[in-house]
Amino acid sequence: MVRPFNATVLAIFLSTALFATDIFAEKADRDKPLIINADTVKLDDVEQKYNLIGDILLTKGSMLATGDDGLIVVDPQGYENMNLKAAPRNFATLRTRREGLLNEYMQGIGKNVLYDGKKEQVIFIGDAKMKRLLNMQMLDELQGAKIEYEDIKESYKVSSPLANRQNLFPQSKAILAPRSKAPMSQ
Questions:
Q1: Per residue, what are the HEC states of the chain?
Q2: How far apart are CA 67 and CA 51, in angstroms?
Q3: What residue segments make up the domains of the chain, in order of their start?
């Protein structure tokens, strides 16, 4: 059963013409509440664990994440660690505005999305794709079986599945804009 809310979320994603994922929220987002929408939410306030099942939409400031099955664990310092999984033939997503330049976003998709708020790290696993956008213009694009991104170090790592290593063609791909020529806005 598709709820009307899902059509709204889908429209938001399609209107951006992006994969609806981003990575590390700006510092102002850290003090924003985490808003959880899902078919089923099981809360354990003592353990600070939140199990999410079905049609998940998470928002926290500029961060937007989706999935079909998820777990959020909050550490004693208040940092959220998220694990979002996709249903078959679907993707989990994460998208957020980056700290610094106006209108710079990171977004990605994968069968599984892991986010570590303390390390400011995101990992997309399974048919993973990630983009860095400035003013909705793509600067960097990555794809592979696994993509790891650390915002603090601004480092990417793209991996291909070990099963495909015998293939002569590369299984990971990166398109990176020259940093000196990337469009800047203030």
A1: CCCHHHHHHHHHHHHHCCCCCCCCCCHHHHHCCCEEECCEEEEECCCCEEEEEEEEEEEECCEEEEEEEEEEEECCCCCEEEEEECCCCCCEEEEEECCCCCCEEEEEEECEEEEECCCCEEEEEEEEEEEEEECCEEEEEEEEEEEEEECCCCEEEEECCHHHCCCCCCCCEEECCCCCCCCCCC
A2: 12
A3: 4-175
Distance CA 77, CA 65 (A): 22
What is the distance between the alpha carbons of residues 48 and 161, in angstroms, rounded to a whole number? 34
Q: Which CATH architecture has domain 4-175?
A: Sandwich (2.60)
Where residue 167 falls among pLDDT bands split at 50, 70, 90? Answer: low
Counting residues of the chain whose pLDDT is more than 90, the rounded percentage is 46
Average pLDDT across the chain, whole number:
79
